[in-house]
Amino acid sequence: MIGFFPTLYPDELWYSAIARFYIHSGIAYWSDALALLFPNHTSYPKVGDLMPNETMHQIVKQLPYDVLNLRMLALGHSLFSFRMRFIPLKQKKRYLEQFCAGENIQSALLSLTKKLQEHPLRYCPLCVQEDRDRFGEAFWHTEHQIWLMPLCAKHLCRLQSADQKNSMPLSRQLVQIPLRTSNVSSETHVWERELTFLLHQWYQMPFEQEANTQTFNLSRAVENAGLLLSGNVNRRSWDTDALYDRLTKQFGSTTVKEVFGERITAAHARRLRKMEIATPEEYALLSILLHMKPEALFEDEPILLFIFEKMKTLSTSGRILTKAAIAEELGLSPEVMVVTGCHDQVAASLGTGIMKDGMAVDGTGTVECITSMFSRKPDTAKLQKSNYAVVPYVLPDSYVCYAFSFTGGALLKWFRDQFGLLETIVAKQCGMNFYEHMNQKLGDVPSGLLVLPYFAGAAAPYMDIDAKGAILGLSLDTTAEEIYRALLEGVTYEMLLNLERLQEAGVYINELRATGGGATSEVWLQMKADILNCKIITLGNAQSGTLGCIMLAGVACGLYENIQQAQKKLVKLGKEYYPRSEQHEIYMHYYNVYKKIYAATKSIGI
After folding, report:
1. Distances from the Cα of 302 to the Cαs of 252, 270, 292, 298, 517, in angstroms?
2. How much of the chain exceeds pLDDT 70, in percent?
3. If we measure between CA atoms, which residue out of 164, 173, 174, 126 comes closest to residue 24?
4. How far is CA 527 from the centre of its chain?
5. End-to-end alpha-carbon separation of the chain, Å?
6. Which one, 227, 401, 521, 593, has least CB within 10 Å?
7. 282: CB partners within 8 A, 6+ apart
8. Taking Cα atoms as reference points, which of 410, 501, 391 lies closest to residue 456?
9. In this structure, are strands 511-515 and 535-538 parallel, antiparallel, or unpaired?
10. 235 confidence band (pLDDT: 50, 70, 90)
């Protein structure tokens, strides 16, 4: 066991603690100090690594229990947390757990930090003086060793390099902070101060902070900077040559080559756009170039696209603009085609392959909406009586009708937000979202409860904005899972009520194609098939409305001969769910009661 080992200072680099042990020990040679600390090493231990390494394991084992712990060393005294900033949370937590369990993770870290250039240790002269005044000695700060960190974040003065032999690994030499530091340099560029602030913010972020891959904020910033390829309709392909040139002009060719290499390829740009690159320095330089806030790549708020602001200006009433002028204003090719679209539910019907009578799309998002198609005009008087709208479909001589409830997924979100805090935490620990976790717990037995899903008023067929929701059948034995299942059942009963009203007007549905967030729940899809007594085909969480608009544009541009060909190419059907007669009969017992609840609540003034 080691006789003594220095207490680590805040933000002290692990190597610095080893160096202070040597200085305090009175041992004549650096190599002898390392031999004392690491007696089983046949070569120099890697105390100079800036990432967690096996020397931490060996020191912790030689000290009394709980004097040091590996998690603290990894997160507070190495660059591990910073280097893992753009690694998915599940993966970096696994690395940390493996390290704390005593495993050697250096081979895994090597692939993730291969661009981490070795450079001399750096220090801030003002921090050195402050440390000596406060602690009686100076030490190497971990944050100062971040690659590309030009300035001290605290004092905004230029970091100084140590007198270090670059031909020899840091682990093999003792590098000390000079007793007399050089003059403080405060002459800095604006971009150096911006880069320092950004890297400091990323360094200070909690280890659990994860980059947001859903907002595509980096791509949005690239688009705002005018760095998309000309004529790029899908707004995804970057002009990598122009981007590389701008980076070089701002940061210099040496820095840009060290970070990105000789050029940025299209494949590399795609990985950056999807946040699949692990190197923080690449995102740092891009963030500064594109004037992004430090938190922009991590927050849920999408960056506002300049083109939307331009379109608002162009839409001002009374302006006369030619197609060429609009294209120039928006940075588009003058050859771009403008194709008219359609209502979102019509587009969703098109995008799910709805092509003939008896077919309908069930879109489950915040709102639950069934859009049915028919080729002959139904009894519109009966449809109007039940507050249904009939609109033309994109196919000749065909129509669609909307049957919807204001609360589909919104009802499940309400339950999660009000009663599901603990389950949300448990679900996250299991690598799932709240809804996936709850679905696994439901089983296949009806809840025995009845939910009137009018938590935001009633839509079709009543259109009663003052209607209120209700949960009936509760007892002290009722579980959270039963209430959650009852919410699913209630939304589905409401859709069955709508289908019955549609049938009275001559609109019959024998096949539902499910899309939206709710279409990923196998439990709910089978429940719908059983309650509605109808085959359901899932398309998963496909963006069916977007796909429908793509089809219209593709036909207009000549990519497809007609809508039918576009649907054949683009619509991908998933799993089919068939009604089970026994389950249907059980559900009908509850449904017959459900149909009476709305009138009952209205009769007592609810």
Report:
1. 30, 19, 12, 10, 20
2. 95
3. 174
4. 30
5. 75
6. 593
7. 259, 260, 272
8. 410
9. parallel
10. low
Residue 586, Cα to own-chain centre: how many angstroms?
41
* 3-state secondary structure (DSSP) of residue 369: strand
Q: 572: Cβ–Cβ under 8 A, 6 or more apart, which residues?
A: 539, 542
Structure tokens at 563: 């809508």
- Structure confidence at residue 473 (pLDDT): 95
Kind plus residue range of the DSSP H or E element containing 94: helix 89-100
Please give the backbone phi and psi of residue 455, each rounded to the nearest 5 degrees, phi first: -75, -10
Tokens describing residue 142: 């971990």
Rounded distance, CA 278 to CA 272, Å?
9
φ/ψ of 26, rounded to 5, equals 80, 5
Q: pTM, whole model, 2 decimals?
A: 0.58
How far lies 232's CA from each of 315, 316, 546, 570, in Å?
23, 26, 18, 21
Q: How far apart are CA 330 and CA 308, in angstroms?
A: 9
Backbone phi, then psi, for 417, in 5-degree steps?
Answer: -70, -35
Helices (H), 331-402: 344-351, 380-385
The Cα-based distances of 425 to 41, 406, 418, 430, 505 in angstroms read: 43, 28, 14, 9, 47
Cβ atoms 193, 135 nearer than 8 A: no
Amino acid at 46: K
Q: How far apart are CA 471 and CA 415, in angstroms?
A: 12
In DSSP terms, 538 is beta-bridged to 514
21-78 per-position pLDDT tens digit: 999 999 999 999 999 999 887 677 888 889 999 999 999 999 988 889 999 999 999 9
How many Cβ atoms sit within 10 Å of the Cβ of residue 241? 12
Q: Identify the H or E element spanning 132.
A: helix 125-135
Gyration radius from the chain CA atoms: 32
Residue closest to 548 by CA, chosen among 353, 357, 368, 338: 353
With residue 511 as reference, give the H or E element that holds it: strand 511-515
Which residues neighbour 142 within 8 Å (Cβ) at sequence distance 6 or greater?
Answer: 11, 12, 13, 50, 76, 77, 78, 79
- In the three-class reduction of DSSP (H, G, I as helix; E, B as strand; rest coil), residue 364 is classed as strand
Do residues 511 and 353 make contact, with C-beta atoms less than 8 angstroms apart? no
Between the alpha carbon of residue 76 and those of residues 14, 294, 336, 366, the distances in Å are 9, 21, 54, 43
Q: Which of 134, 85, 83, 74 is nearest to 113 (CA)?
A: 83
Which residues, other chains included, contact 492 with Cβ-Cβ below 8 Å and sequence gap of 6+?
524, 527, 528, 531, 532
**For tokens 């859709």, what's the residue?**
495
Structure tokens at 149: 């960190």
Which among 477, 476, 470, 317 has a CA at the least distance from the CA of 407? 470
Can you tell me the mean pLDDT for 520-544?
89
Phi, psi values for residue 511, rounded to 5°: -150, 125
What whole-number distance in Å separates Cα of residue 33 and Cα of residue 27?
6
Strands 450-452 and 399-405: unpaired
User: Do 313 and 320 touch, CB atoms closer than 8 A?
Assistant: no
Element (H, E) at 594: helix 581-594
